[in-house]
Amino acid sequence: MLFLLILPFENNAQDINTLLKEAQQLENAFKEPEALQKYLAITRHQPTNLTALIKTSELYSILGKHQGTKEKQKEYYRNARVYAQKALQVNPNSSDANVVMSLAMGRMALISSGEEKIKAVKDVKSYSEKSIQLDPANFKGYHVLAKWHYEVSDLNTVEKWLVKVAYEALPKASLDDAIRLYEKSRSLNPSFLLNYLELAKAYHRKNNDKKAVELLETMLKMPNKIGDDGHIKAKGKKLLEEYK
């Protein structure tokens, strides 16, 4: 099946919209690797297709988490960044193009160190903030910005020094802002499972395990929306045992 997806189109008259629908159907069936190959095929034949570029970037970020080595993860995240850049070239004022760039850089920041990490951290904030400015209802933008606050508010001393150098001042980041932004994301999309997991972690750090447990229990009862939700629930179950 996967082999068929990466074959060249039979002819240039193939309906791109039909291919986009097929890619979406693969995502709905939790077949993200196959969907990625479909979107890549679309970008090869229509390099400025904004939807395909955005989805390609997003799927590289999602699938990168599950690669076996850090180098393989970085390869996926670099690809996510490349396709986000292409999407931004097509439309720099696309909220979703900005959010997938912030997601790619956020993933990179989590597995990097030193200057590479700090550069990624800086990009996460700027692109996620812009995504929200362009579309105040972009729940993913609020989620990524919340994650930025969560991570930066917990940097070690050396990392804080590097951030201060990069920004010329230590940026304001707080756990309270992380919680506020996660809650905003949840209000915009109550079915976004990853947000429940990250919000629960934030409440746990805030020493509010009652709220963290409540969120995790709610999340575990919700239906899976994307292929990654199964992995998210597995992490949620482990945290639930820890927080109870």
Topology:
Elements: H1 2-5, H2 16-28, H3 32-45, H4 50-64, H5 70-90, H6 95-111, H7 114-134, H8 139-152, H9 157-167, H10 175-188, H11 193-205, H12 209-221, H13 229-243
Describe the structure.
By secondary structure, the chain is mainly α. Helices cover about 75% and strands about 0% of the residues. The chain is built from 13 helices and no strands. The protein has helices at about 1-5, 15-30, 30-45, 50-65, 70-90, 95-110, 115-135, 140-150, 155-165, 175-190, 195-205, 210-220, 230-244. Helix 7 (about 115-135) packs antiparallel against helix 8, helix 10 (about 175-190) runs antiparallel to helix 11 and helix 11 packs antiparallel against helix 12 (about 210-220). The longest helix is centred in the N-terminal third of the chain and has 21 residues, at about 70-90. It is globular and about 55 Å long. The N and C termini lie far apart (about 45 Å).
Largest sheet: none
Span of the ends, CA to CA: 44 Å
Number of E-state strands:
0
What share of the residues does DSSP label as strand, in percent? under 5%
Task: Evaluate the radius of gyration.
Answer: 18 Å
Query: Count of helices?
Result: 13
Q: What percentage of residues falls in helices of 4 or more residues?
A: over 70%
The helix/strand order is HHHHHHHHHHHHH
**Low-confidence residue ranges:** 1-11
Average of pLDDT: 90
Structural class: mainly alpha
